[in-house]
TrEMBL record:
A Pfam entry, by short name: Diphthami_syn_2
Enzyme nomenclature, EC number: 6.3.1.14
The protein, known as: Diphthine--ammonia ligase
Listed GO MF terms: ATP binding; diphthine-ammonia ligase activity
Source organism of the structure: Chlorella sorokiniana
Amino acid sequence: MKTVALVSGGKDSCYNMVLCQQYGHEVVALANLLPEAQETDDLDSYMYQTVGHQVIAAYAECMGLPLYRRRITGRSADQRLVYEDTQGDEVEDLAALLAYIKQQHPEVTAVASGAIASDYQRTRVERVCARLGLVSLAYLWHQPQAALLRRMIDSNIDAILVKIAAAGLTPRKHLGARLASLPAQLHALRRLYGSNVCGEGGEYESLTLDCPLFTRGRIVLDSWQAVTVSEDSMAPVALLHPTAFHVEPKQPAAGSTAAAAGAAAAEVIEVPPDWWPPVAQQAGEPAGSAAPSAAKAALDVQLSTVEGGQYCSLTASVAAAPAGADLDLSSAAGTAAALSSALRRISDALPGLGLRWTSSLFVHLYVPSMAQFGAANAAYAAFLPAINPPSRATVELGGNAELALVVEVLFARQPEGRRVLHVQSISEWAPSCIGPYSQATRHRGLALFAGQIALDPPTMGIIGGGIDAQCVRCLLSCQRVAVAVRTDLPQSLLWCTVYCSDASGAAGRQRAAAHLAAFLEGQLDTALLEQQPQQLQDSSSTEQQAGDGSGSGGDSEEEGEEAASDGEEDLELDEYLQPPAMRPHWQPLLTFVTVPELPRGVLVEIQPAACLVDESLAEDSSSSSDEEEGEEAAAARRSRREAAAAARPAGSSMPGWIGRLRRTSNGSSSSSLWSPGRLCKVHSSISRAAAAADWRWTVRIAASELAAGVEAAGLEAADVAACKIYCLASLLGSQGGPTAAELREAIAAALPGVQPAVVPVTAVGSSAGAEAAILLEALALRS
């Protein structure tokens, strides 16, 4: 992609440009924001680094690229984590700058920024990109800082410290010191004070003087002044004010004409402070007005509701078009029309239930043809919120004569506490969610993960290697998302749906089950990924080079040797990249579903749900104890444990808060995962033989098992939040087989008021080898 790079002068933004080039993008312009007053060095900003801004103009000459600059006139008006467009905010200066550049360079489709750990900065850049139709490239996002620092230095990022503000850093020793000389000392400070080796906690700021993309010249700092901001004895604050510098030309290759072209392009353009782009439409609650006109087509849409007391789910099912119908629902226009009609039906029902799209937690989307995924996404985006959208899983519906499309949406009646992880930037961390869906949605102790497919995060391409490599990639991405929302998936997984495509076959389900089991046991074979050997080699190289840094300029030789010996590099993950300590004590519920096709032709899609570490759905983490909490909290915890043990039905052997119970009867079997009075997830499956003999009787038995599971957990039908019936597509609506309406009636008889979603599939089971004809699911929740 043609890319404009946001440059502050720091090492992070420069190294991100290097990675953009490595991943095949072309930086065609630079963008920089600087203080309104030229004499200001350090702006009080949550968003922008401005120390050393006097030097940034030289970047145009060093790279042979145009540099666009705008002075910051706004302030940090909206300081919430998720930014909403606010007039007078400093983010609007960024939006104006990028809008101006896009006007001058219509070929630009991406923006590069150097965010590593700051959600505050990342979400604001992503918001601006979404407004302007640009893709955010943030390859440093959530990379381990120790390894990242070494990668920067090994990539010849030549940077100096221009601001210090941390214990252990002093103006005399460290201001102006080259970053390459400091790793050992930075690691020593990390061990002493818990500081960030890349300066993510504001410990220091840097200024890049040379990097691989500076092909025309390098910056030489001739003189500078040290400015003391605070003389705090523990953590003095000081910055470097450049007073003189020049660009030292680099010799171009023999016969190269690039130097002349670069000189012509190396222009510095200051965007007028009074230039503002046209007012963009504010994003928020979508009205569906942008939905395709095809949505008005006359389609048969059935709305089913599960009106729980605290949660509610709505399902819109579009009937298959009769033979000879004008609109082919598997075409792009037909898919858009069907999905728009379904979402419109749900939207129309929300006011009467006291709900809004912004209280949605999860969307299951079953489309007629995955070949029309793009058309479905466009229709979907017209209804779902662009800011804080729910998580989503999308698969192709099993071919049948009754249903063409199904949309199931879970809502929280009290959305307070709803949090989403919506990382739209392309990075090396995990696949981005550029569309209107999030990687995970959290609400009152639960984390609902989007369906994860085998996307290579930095390229967003499907990885090779077959079902094995795809499973590993999916699970690694799921775990990275889990850590970001503060849980540990192998320890906290409650239930998981594993979708396999028809192309993967029965063997694919078995392989997926094996990899999932290995993942839960901490034995996932990451070597199956094609890129993994190189990653391991890089990590090994980093470890071998640990401790090679020497003391900074001004130290004696003895001081430098002491710092190096005390501050050898360690590759321990940063705290925010480490999974929380948890203790598993239950077996998660698993569902294996085979469908005709999955997004982008992948073989597997994994959709987990987990509990969060700081909620009472999970047992205490191993890092806490009753004594640490105080007597009152400890007594309350013991009381809850005793209540859980007393409420455990006979046959459940699981200790602690969450238990498992399995029942088997003639033709059906059920499993439930429950936390007394809070949560219950029940599966009840019907064998193919039992369904063939008498599906009506076995469905009634299976439905009663759902009701029994909910009751055993101390919950009621009014607590049921969602209910679903997977049915073999070959059985649904066939001669002698059940219709969707008949299946819904069977559930309603056992759980009054519950109208389940009916989903036709190729195969389904509660294990990889199980071959059920019908599988019923119910989720009951009470906050």
